[in-house]
């Protein structure tokens, strides 16, 4: 369990982190969201002591994070980078040894990951001889060589092709299922919605929303009604206690209050159009995000 | 997992990866070949080594030939004597380069170009001896009596400017040693600089610093490159020794084992000191191309320290030479020379080693801090000031007003955080360390100057002067008003 407790970091007059408090739990994927410059990278660096905090503490299993704890953390920085001229396997074994593991032990882990991610054949090559995709795989292994209990990934999906994205998603889900605490940042909200159980949203260095995704969605006072219909578009804005969010060809999305009389909305809609289907649901993550960030 | 073990892993990586690189192997091979060639080629270009050809003409030829051989032997050179029937034939040989000199009728020496002073002394001496012998015989002296009369009296030469027992050979050895040290520090220091910039350029540094402290990364890198440097020097030195023994081209001055051991100690210390500075400065840049831009301060400092050591050579026992040989930045260049010239009491090198070690430890702390502050920066090269600042905020200045405000701020931050701010305390610890190191050096310097000059006031001035200059430099570099002075 990773805890941010009132973490504050200033760079001169800029407050990058402003009393950030949130938790990432073991066995779960936590999505770390926020617009560019909101403080995601600074917060992740704070876990690894790469920025000196002005106030607050980052805790792991209730204890302030020190070098001992960090040996069991894996990190993939936003700026990817390894030694371009070092051989792939040598490099990964070296990084694993820096986490305090023995060479043979790390060797087995490295070989296992190289095999699983399909780069075993390139183990003896220099990193700069590998394709971009393979270099990214090696970078991911670099975060995993310490056999981490906590995995912090800064934009792990950036620059991946759709297949690689699926692989990465499955891998993170597997790791979480194995008890690892996974915290990653992303701008791909649909993907986060699919993968993550928990989300943390940061804006201007402040945590604006944090918790279990399902719970957060349920807590929001708005609900959405998605209508599919045949024929011409009626004037949806005249429906009682509902607000048109978007209208398209044969479909419309309406916002209603959590306590709205759904039957009345449905009945009013039926009067206006030949309805195919109704769907009543809480807001999507991207709606939550926009709402939270705009506030 | 402690920093020492991690540092050692870094060292091993440096050794393995660098020893594997073709560029390194090529540079070692080149150095070995260059040194061997430098020693062997001059010997090959002068066939017969030190053998000179002397032509003689005239009636005294036979006696003169023997005398020349004798005198040449005494001077440590080999001379072959060729009699010529006429001066013209001899001159012809000189012009063709077959003779180094022609002694025409034991009255005139004829050279092709400028006279070789050593050979001139030898031949002139021989002519004098033969002439005196002839005159003695003419005066009726028996050959034995003449020989006794002419027996050479050995005369030794002492240079009073030097410490007893040490001579010009030691001076040469010292100049060579200091030069090699300067050369090595420059080369290997630049390797540390480039290594740091390479890690920043490839961005691997963030992956590394998430695992190990900056201090361990820097110290491990410096140790790795240093060990490799020592190995390279050892290989080159071995090649030089083999080349010299093979051709016997130059006399190696006999250097005592203890002097050599001290030279190695000072190589290690001098390298560690300057490599740390190089490493810290390297962290201010973000690519290999920034090397020139960021290395400015040390590229000025290093030659100044090196040339300051020449002052020591002429006056190894003077008070100024002593101060230079204690001051950590110049000690690696000046102290080995003073030791070699036998101008030190036993405690002097020990004191200098302690001072230098303390400075290195202080520098590694400082450099580690700068490194962490600057390492995550990319883009144009940082100034020292920015690097220092980016690691920290709210550094209390010495003015009571500022100290007060920032303390209040800190209390407020602490209250907000609902706990203690451990990071800020680490900040303070590093400032305290800096102050302690600077004060330590200043006190040591002041005391030594006071002892050496028997003048307490001078010592106090030296100590305060050092502290003032050092804190001023910190201020200039960091842009804040100096490290905190006991406000906490």
Provide a short characterization of the protein structure.
The complex is a heterodimer of chains A (295) and B (488). With 295 residues, chain A is an alpha/beta fold. Helix content of chain A is 34%, strand content 31%.
Keywords:
heterodimer, A: 295 residues, 10 helices, B: four-stranded mixed beta sheet, 4 strands
Describe the overall structure.
The complex is a heterodimer of chains A (295) and B (488). Chain A has 295 residues and is of the alpha/beta class. Chain A contains 10 helices and 14 strands. In chain A, strand 12 and strand 13 form a beta hairpin. In chain A, helix 3 crosses helix 4 and helix 3 packs parallel to helix 5. The longest helix of chain A is centred in the middle third of the chain and has 16 residues. Chain A is elongated. The mean pLDDT of chain A is 88. By secondary structure, chain B is mainly alpha-helical. Helix content of chain B is 71%, strand content 4%. In chain B, strands 2-1-3-4 form a 4-stranded mixed sheet, sandwiched between helices. In chain B, a hairpin with a 3-residue loop joins strand 3 and strand 4. In chain B, helix 3 crosses helix 5, helix 12 runs antiparallel to helix 13 and helix 18 packs antiparallel against helix 19. The longest helix of chain B is centred in the middle third of the chain and has 34 residues. The chains are: A alpha/beta (295), B mainly alpha (488). At the A-B interface, strand 1, strand 4, helix 2 and helix 3 of A face helix 1, helix 8, helix 17 and helix 18 of B.
Shape of chain A: elongated
Category from helices, strands and their pairing of chain B: mainly alpha
Give the spatial strand order of the biggest sheet of chain A: 6-7-8-3-9-10
Radius of gyration of chain B: 32 Å
Fraction of residues in H or I helices of chain B: over 70%
Which spans of chain B of ≥5 residues are poorly predicted at pLDDT below 50? 392-426, 479-488
Mean pLDDT over all positions of chain B = 74
Tally of individual helices of chain A: 10
- What is the count of helical runs of chain B? 19
Largest sheet descriptor of chain A:
6 strands, mixed
Q: Identify the overall geometry of chain B.
A: elongated
Looking at how many chains there are and whether they match, the oligomeric state comes to heterodimer
Q: Return the string of H and E elements of chain A.
A: EEEHEEHEHHHEHEHEEHEEEHEH
Largest interface: A-B, 43 and 44 residues
Q: Report the portion of residues of chain A in β strands.
A: 25-35%
